[in-house]
Design a protein that fits this description.
Helices cover 71% and strands 0% of the residues. By secondary structure, it is mostly helical.
Length: 283
């Protein structure tokens, strides 16, 4: 986190809060912009796995004997794959264990002394990370996919702004879920178990490995309504692929917004409960 957090003025609390939040977003962006080689290597890896996933799903289309599996045609599935590969570093499904590590070492005590709630502070930093991913790692896989495969070009004017909104909500939902998983360290001290379960479940239930529409309709609907998982990748990818009509697209993004608010509120409740029982190891 950036040490230059501005003090919130009593005369302009909203302006001070917005300025502080923006400063934390900037610090998150600068932090990830220093890892240039990791950015290049990660983009290359996403492109390689994009080819593997794309050929597998296109084989599903070819084996469907002229039908559209789960309502996707070849262009929509190719778009689904390559946009998904570009969004991996934007959504940030895996790899974040900072909160759990700081709880384990006791460094979380320093976070609690700051004038910004840990949930808000880490959210702002994660938005900066997502912005960096969108500017540096989203375009590479999408360009590779456009060169080698026919991708679907959006035909509705509302698709692009709705996609941007959906991706933003997906980042917030994913952050909230990862925060809750990391926060189990307040009680377990070592959160590697829950983090491993999250790593396995987020890709499968989030729609990374295959579209959830390929599952039985009742199961896919239950996942959408009862869990935030499809809001991670499935919803923004269905929006950009124009899998559904405009009204259903807007409804799915609205459901994303509900889950975003719910997981952030739950993260705040968990954080407050944890602070009342926190014992810093070693002192």
């Amino acid at each position: 986190m950036d040490a230059r957090v501005l003090t919130i003025s009593r005369n302009g609390p909203f302006r001070g809060s917005a300025t502080t939040f923006g400063a934390l977003i900037g610090s998150g962006f600068r932090r990830y912009s220093t890892y240039r080689q990791a950015t290049i290597a990660g983009t290359f890896t996403n492109i390689v796995f994009g080819f593997l996933r794309c050929y597998v799903l296109l084989a599903v289309v070819e084996g469907a004997a002229g039908q559209q599996p789960a309502g996707y045609d070849a262009e929509q599935l190719a778009t689904y794959v390559w946009v998904g590969q570009g969004l991996l570093s934007v959504i940030g499904l895996w790899g974040w264990t900072e909160l759990a590590d700081r709880i384990r070492t006791g460094d979380i005590a320093a976070d609690l002394l700051r004038p910004v709630s840990p949930v808000v502070g880490y959210l702002a930093a994660d938005l900066g990370r997502a912005l960096h991913g969108a500017l540096t790692r989203f375009g590479g896989p999408l360009l590779a996919g456009a060169v080698f495969f026919p991708l679907r070009t959006p035909t509705r004017w509302q698709t692009i702004p709705l996609f941007v909104l959906s991706v933003t909500l997906a980042v917030v939902v994913c952050f909230g879920c990862r925060y809750l998983v990391n926060a189990t360290a307040y009680w377990l001290h070592d959160a590697r178990g829950p983090i491993m379960v999250w790593t396995l479940g987020a890709g499968v239930l989030g729609g990374l490995y295959f579209p959830l529409r390929l599952l039985p309709e009742e199961l896919a609907l239950a996942l959408w309504v009862a869990t935030p998982m499809p809001s991670l990748l499935q919803t923004p990818l269905d929006v950009i692929a124009e899998r559904d009509g405009p009204l259903l697209q807007a409804g799915l993004v609205g459901l994303q917004a509900v889950w975003a608010v719910a997981v952030l509120l739950l993260a705040g409740v968990v954080q407050r409960r944890a602070e009342r029982r926190l014992v810093v190891q070693g002192g």
